[in-house]
Design a protein that fits this description.
about 100 residues, alpha+beta, three-stranded antiparallel sheet, two-stranded antiparallel sheet, 1 helix, about 15% helix
Length: about 100
């Protein structure tokens, strides 16, 4: 129980739990970078991938990649930022038809 003598500033606050929701999956493409499109700013940016490596039952090295993204952003694999912007523009034009 909390000590009533302590002020609210002295008490430690319990951090809120962040919930992560599984949106979907896509295969990592060798030699390409994952880019996301921010519709509010109109900018493309590279997504940071976190990788976990482990040995499976057969003794082979398995690497899994995870990305934390905003569900409102559109993502695409591309060689560079310029090509990613072209793909995003193409995607937006198809959505407007």
């Amino acid at each position: 129980m909390l000590d009533p003598k302590l002020s609210t500033e002295d008490r430690q606050q319990i951090p809120e739990k962040q919930e992560y929701k599984f949106i979907g999956s896509m295969r990592k493409r060798k030699g390409l970078t994952l880019f996301a499109w921010d519709p509010d700013k109109g900018q493309a940016y590279p997504v940071e991938l976190k990788s976990d490596s482990f040995l499976n039952v057969n003794g082979k090295l398995v690497t899994k990649h995870k990305a934390q993204i905003n569900p409102e952003h559109t993502m695409v694999w591309s060689l560079n930022k310029q090509n990613a912007i072209k793909k995003f523009i193409r995607f937006i034009n198809q959505q407007n038809l």
